[in-house]
Write a structure and sequence with these properties.
With about 180 residues, the protein is mainly alpha-helical. It is built from eight helices and no strands. Helix 5 crosses helix 6 and helix 7 (about 135-140) packs antiparallel against helix 8. The longest helix is centred in the last third of the chain and has 29 residues, at about 155-184. It is globular, with a radius of gyration of 18 Å. The chain starts with 17 loop residues before the first helix and ends with a helix.
């Protein structure tokens, strides 16, 4: 006699996989085209992916093109993070890295033109502020962690906004010493 297979809990969080990522365009974007699937430090993997893409795009970009890219990627990211968080059933999954991608692009653009060492400093500062979550970064990170998807019909939209917001603030915190260093 065999025992029946356990029935999966429909409210349990989903672990992302390549199959999950490819199931919806929002998942592909939010998971940083696979960089968020890293088993270790997905936020760092997403930031490294963002850095690589920035370097590859840089020869074809100017300030107007970067501005237009940011104006497209910010609302697109909000949507993608909201949809993916809802489908994973987690308000702020660590595997969602589009927030790191856009925030780091914004930081690199703000400190451009910059050489390898300045970009490395920007990377280190951004990862520090994103990981340690001091002051305003911590506030933004916790802003929508208390929403209840069962009672708040806009919970996932708020979650997506919160996912993006804390990394944008981390980028701003990293930009301040970078800009001060440049002006000194």
């Amino acid at each position: 006699m065999t025992t029946p297979a356990p029935v999966p809990d429909p409210s349990a969080p989903l672990r992302p996989s390549w199959r999950f990522m490819l199931r919806h365009p929002a998942h592909l974007i939010a998971l940083g085209f696979g960089s968020g699937l890293s088993p270790r430090a997905p936020g760092t993997a997403g930031t490294l992916w963002a850095w690589l893409v920035f370097v590859l795009l840089q020869p074809w970009m100017n300030d107007l093109r970067w501005l237009l890219l940011m104006l497209v990627c910010l609302p697109l990211g909000w949507w993608a993070c909201s949809v993916t968080a809802r489908n994973m059933r987690v308000l702020d999954p660590g595997s969602i890295v589009w927030d790191e991608v856009v925030a780091f692009w914004l930081l690199l653009w703000l400190v451009a033109p910059s050489g390898w060492m300045a970009q490395l400093a920007a990377f280190a500062l951004f990862r520090f502020f994103d990981a340690v979550k001091l002051g305003p970064v911590a506030w933004a990170d916790q802003l929508f962690h208390g929403v209840d998807p069962h009672t708040d019909r806009r919970a996932w939209i708020k979650a997506g906004f919160g996912i993006m917001l804390d990394d944008l603030i981390a980028a701003a915190c990293a930009a301040l010493p970078m800009i001060a260093w440049r002006l000194a």
